[in-house]
Structures are given as structure tokens and as C-alpha cells.
Write a structure and sequence with these properties.
- By secondary structure, the chain is mainly alpha-helical.
- Helices cover 45% and strands 0% of the residues.
- It is built from three helices and no strands.
- The longest helix is centred in the middle third of the chain and has 10 residues, at 25-34.
- The model has no long low-confidence stretch (mean pLDDT 79).
Length: 53
């Protein structure tokens, strides 16, 4: 939808490239790192299952 507005010449605040990049977590972290911005602490699980107590 946003690309359609861009093709029509409508002014958009955030272009489709910036929105696409923001939705890709790894790419977003790479871009933040390149600019020297602090990165949030992120955890990744090896498995979605939980351990029984």
C-alpha cells in the first residue's frame, strides 16, 4: 500500500525501505551498531519448549 502511495507521488513520512528494514530485527541491530548506538540486550532461545519444574 505504501509503495502505491509513493508511486503516485504522495508525500510519506517513512518510506517503504525504512519500514522494511525496521521489521527485520537483525538488519535493524546492524544499522544501529554501525551508527554507534547502544544495542538492547537480547536473548534467543534454543527451543520454544519450557523445562518442567
Amino acid at each position: 500500500m505504501l509503495r502505491q502511495f509513493e508511486m503516485m507521488g504522495t508525500y510519506v513520512i517513512n518510506d517503504n525501505v525504512s519500514i522494511t528494514r525496521s521489521r527485520d530485527k537483525l538488519r535493524s541491530l546492524q544499522l544501529l551498531s554501525r551508527k554507534g548506538l547502544g544495542l538492547p540486550i537480547t536473548g534467543f532461545a534454543h527451543s520454544p519448549t519450557t523445562f518442567p519444574i
